[in-house]
Design a protein that fits this description.
MAB_1171c-like, elongated, about 0% strand
């Protein structure tokens, strides 16, 4: 269904694709992939013979689609791999070879003994007709040659490409072509076994997996550079939205303390109408990268407003508390900062008129947003834990209570 959606949605651009051979080859590859699995669908498969009037024509048609699909994939790789004139010559050669293979396949299939058609036993199907064996060998030779060439080209250029969706796609296509070779090996084994009177019908599942999964991976791999970046964008937007929501507890505490830290000082207030909240949510969904960067900046600005209220004794107490629980590195630092924020907020709430610098103006987005997010998410995690606000400052007097002994 996905392949048909791509084919039908892109059909209106076919006239322009005539000048873009790679795009045309991609569209053709999707078309034949869709035809392969549509023909193999039980509802269609069981009716093809009656529609065509030719016994076992479903097998012939499906294998012809496979040859066309494989040729399209090879032409697409040739368009990528060679300069324009050479790519066109190779594409014409590939298409001509595919047409010749299809002609030979149809001729041999039509000349195969009538007794072969309708046979259900394994040995009669694969070994009952010389013409049918020649038909299968022609098909398998062409299919295998294309799969080997796909593997060669994909591996060659994947090694030359930097890490990207294109490199991943080439590697995926080469794996798919290698899996497709299992189909060739299985079918060749079927012919040899039928000659020897052996039944290898228990390997049918392996052959079907090799053909189906191999073709799927080749198609996915050769188009991954096109739709892969869209997946990356979706994942990145999702991660940003999750981070935006996870930072809210810390951000909301600073906003309640000093609304001037916010670029949009309507957010988070209880008096905002539902329509305003919906509008703000749409803005965030439209550009989460910008809004999560704004939230990071606003939290950083909020931390700056608390500098006059920070107590070194709280830092020492938090270090001792979290250090005794095995925290080190950034986790320990994040816990200390969370404890400092809680203590500074309590002090500020108790004496809001203390002499302090004005709230800093909102600065630009951080240079490394991912690093800032990782850090502030850790701080927020500690900030929301109940024990982080109950950490006692370290005593400045090392003498035990009760005086000297």
């Amino acid at each position: 269904m996905f392949a048909w959606i791509v084919v039908l949605a892109s059909a209106k651009r076919l006239p322009s694709m005539r000048k873009q051979p790679a795009r045309l080859a991609t569209w053709t590859m999707y078309l034949f992939f869709a035809l392969i699995f549509t023909t193999g669908w039980g509802v269609v498969w069981d009716r093809i013979d009656s529609w065509s009037g030719l016994p076992e024509s479903n097998t012939l048609i499906t294998m012809c689609w496979v040859i066309c699909y494989s040729a399209s994939a090879l032409v697409l790789l040739q368009q990528w791999s060679y300069e324009r004139d050479r790519a066109r010559r190779l594409a014409r050669l590939t298409i001509t070879a595919a047409v010749l293979v299809l002609a030979v396949m149809v001729g041999l299939f039509l000349r195969s003994d009538a007794t072969h058609h309708g046979q259900q036993s394994f040995t009669a199907w694969y070994g009952g007709s010389v013409e049918y064996e020649a038909y299968l060998l022609t098909y398998l030779f062409a299919y295998t040659a294309v799969e080997i060439e796909i593997i060669r080209l994909c591996r060659r250029y994947a090694r030359l490409t930097t890490r990207s969706w294109l490199r991943t796609g080439l590697a995926t296509a080469s794996i798919g072509a290698a899996i497709g070779l299992f189909y060739s090996i299985t079918r060749l084994a079927d012919i040899a076994a039928a000659r020897a009177g052996l039944d290898l019908s228990n390997l049918e599942d392996l052959a079907e997996v090799g053909a189906g999964l191999g073709a799927l991976l080749v198609m996915v791999g050769l188009t991954l550079h096109w739709w892969g970046p869209r997946i990356s964008t979706v994942f990145l937007r999702t991660r940003r939205l999750i981070a935006y929501a996870r930072l809210r507890p810390l951000w909301a505490r600073f906003y309640a303390l000093d609304p001037s830290i916010a670029f949009d000082d309507q957010r988070g207030t209880s008096r905002v109408r539902f329509a305003d909240r919906a509008k703000a949510a749409r803005r965030v969904l439209k550009d989460p990268e910008y809004h999560v960067a704004r939230r990071v900046v606003e939290i950083r600005d909020g931390i700056l407003t608390l500098r006059p209220y920070q107590d070194p004794a709280v830092t020492q107490g938090a270090r001792a508390y979290y250090g005794s629980r095995g925290l080190t590195g950034e986790d320990l630092d994040a816990g200390i900062v969370a404890a400092q924020i809680h203590a500074a907020l309590d002090v500020r709430d108790a004496s809001p008129r203390r002499n302090q610098p004005p709230s800093p103006a909102s600065s630009s987005a951080p240079a490394d947003l991912d690093a800032e997010l990782t850090w502030l998410l850790k701080v927020t995690t500690f900030f929301t834990q109940p024990h982080s606000r109950n950490i006692q400052p370290a005593s400045a007097d090392p003498t035990p209570t009760g005086g000297t002994s």
